[in-house]
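Input:
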Amino acid sequence: MNSLSVKAKNKMTLIVHYLLLLMLAIIVIYPVYFALSYTFMTPQEINTGAPNFLPESFYLGNIIEVIQTTPILRFILNSFIIATAVMIGELITGSLAAYAFAFIPFKGRNFIFALFLATLMVPSEVTVIPRYLMMNALGWMNTYQGLIVPHLATVFGIFLLRQFFMQLPKELMDAAKMDGAGHARIFLTIVLPLSRPALGTLAVYSFLNTWNQYLWPLLMTNSETMRPVQIGITMLENEEFMEWNLILAGVTIALLPSLILLVFGLKQLVAGITAGSVKQ
Amino acid sequence: MQNSEKAFERPFVLNKAASPAKRKRLRKEQIIGYGFIMPSVILLSAFVFFPFFQSIYLSFFMTDPIGNIVAFVGIQNYMDLFTDPEFLNSLKITFLFTIYTVPTGIFIALLLAVLTTSKAKGMKVFQFAFSLPIAMSVGTSSVIWLLLFNPTSGVFNYILNSLGIPSVHWLTDPNWALTSIALMTIWMTLGLNFIILLAGLQGIPKDLYESAKIDGANQIQLFFKITIPLLSPTLFFLLIISVINALQAFGQFNVMTNGGPMNSTNVFVFSLYQEAFVNFQFGLGSTRALILFVIILVLTWLQFKVGEKKVHYQ
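Output:
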């Protein structure tokens, strides 16, 4: 009858829907846009007294200056070393333990697994004081091992991989066993190659998590050369004379790895988060 | 899931009647099993189990600045804590911070998730935009928002001023500081909330909506009769982890306000940090850590209890 007006009404709701989304997206993105755009503005563009929303130039001077005048590259290198080491460690310890919990019937397996799961209820802040005292006693303050070793095994990683391993087709493993393959061979040639999606998820998750850590590196480092980028960046801000464009250039450099990972690994990250959440 | 549980419950039997060869193989398997979990057992024992018990132990003692035990004080640390006005204040502030951030954060994320699950074109782009804050660490977010909150050249006061409203001292006014950090925290946690709710929404079977539509239900009815009930496990899960995260908030306070002005942002973990790593009172710090643990334990327990009920109900 009046299909035309229904169509028009639908079009109107669609437009309103898009406008609303666009407005909300601008608000959500603004803080990141602010950091990125100020990074590439000239000092004159910034010092106009009012926020500048549209940069006119693509000025690289801030990036160059922040690299030359602050140890930001050293911070990045530290974070990179720490996050990579933790990621590799978590993948190794996590996949080994997950394999045992999924496929090897050893005595006390249920009990140990339950004990592991119980630690999910202990937030790291609860154990941070003794860990700090331990590092102090070992002389591991301001060292890579102090920042890396405590995080080499996580229950989240073990749990995530175990859940994935359990869903692998049992026939494959049975067939390999019939051929006389031992656990080590099944683990290396069947389970690990088939688990690439889960391993990828854990890798992305663990790298980002370590890269973004705050409290532990704050406690463990007091020398500038050992600081990871998250702590380093807040120190830049503390320097009174620092210009906004330089601070934000530092922020942009610190953000880059997580932004890249977000662009390429969002799917994996989402898979990890949902696996971690739904299965609980 | 069900399948995996069954596999896991498979009873372990080292059958006495089994042939010696088989028994030997099973024993060998045991050793391999322990070998596989050994790295994790050692690391978790050293950095989770041991420190946890050490925390309990420390909470009954007074320590010197390098953590050596000076004197056994029993439950004195706990008694001191609950008569310490500063600690009670930090409990109150943490509570307020949770109230400010959690419901608002979930509500906004739910709105965004519902808006981006429509069939209209381009939703992937918006989904990416709303997930963006997940890439932000507490360090970088705090630095960016510190500049946004800047009283003279920050964007917030610029907007207020252009509307004819006088400037607000976002982070240095005791009436505003907590609200300002709550605003920043809502933004910072939006990405995670959004991703979890989006996954929950996408898990709701489409045909439910279709058949309800045929029965003549309108959008609002669909939302309250189908979306909300089916999303309730996800919402509840998100509620609990959001509360736990809010209780653990620290970085943004350390960078943006340092607990001030006038202790108005001295949240739980910040006071723990102050006590243990600024005043070097490790015993008193551990007491705080354990109280945090008990609160989180209760919340997790609640999550499991209600979670179980939901499963039975369906």
